[in-house]
Design brief:
The complex is a heterodimer.
Chain A: H1 3-12, H2 22-34, H3 48-108, H4 110-113
Chain B: H1 3-11, H2 14-33, H3 36-53, H4 60-81, H5 103-106, H6 109-120, H7 124-134, H8 140-147, H9 151-169
Helix pairs in contact in B: 2-3, 2-4, 3-4, 7-9, 8-9
The chains are: A mainly alpha, B mainly alpha.
Chain lengths: ~120, ~180
Amino acid sequence: MSDKLEQELKKALRRVEPPASFAERVLARAAEEEKPGAPLRPWPQWLGMGGLRWAAASALCAALATSGLVYHHERQKQGEEAKEQLMLALRITSSKLQIAAEGVQQMNSPEENQP
Amino acid sequence: MTSAATALANQLNFEDLVREHERMVFSIAYHFLQNGAAAEEVSQDVFLALFRGLSKLESRAHVTFWLRRVTCHRSIDYARRNKNAAAEVSWDELPEQPPENNSAQRGDPMLSKRLRQVIATLPEKMRMIVILRYQEDAGLEEIAKALRIPLNTVKSTLHRAHAILREKIGAAIGEGNV
């Protein structure tokens, strides 16, 4: 690395003065925070922005997991209902078949066919 | 909070800290973002974070390290949030640096401006490494700690930054392209 480039980089990146009254604006904002009625941050201080992102991601995961469970439960419930309906239909069909069979048997019975 | 930390918190006057470090904090954000208003926003947030966490800092050296680290990370976050605004800085958009009394320190203003324009095009981490190295005169280990990256990454990134800068402005400073 050449000294020349390093020197030019130091000159180009020398520290600059902040705008006028910068410190006063910072102190005013800090004083605002110290007031008893100052608005509270919507999340705890320890959480910070990184923590907030993690909390949001966790909440999203929890919501997805819950909706997955609800969906699975709904599907199971629908399946059970369909099974019950099928069983009922089979029972009805079976009883109708039994009535028909009895009818056929009566028609074939010799005593009852006699005048 | 330990008794040593309490004693330090009592010693450290927030206003003194702001006045002592405002140039450092503002300059890092300013050189990284190339925008005075954005740099002020980031710098104010950094000092407010310091105000809230003052009791947790262990020494004056820790305050400097902490401010440098938080300014770097908040500047990078700000640039990511406002990616379109900070994508590329044109020559006309580049702010002029305030005049320096010592003209030897100032150097060629056009060359400085061209250098800052090229630095603004560097990737985030590389740009911040260059700023910490040449604005803050920070050592490589110090940079690695501030940016929480391995020392070897700092070395290789700085090496690549030099190559890019030499390629783009080597002729202007009297060096041939590599």
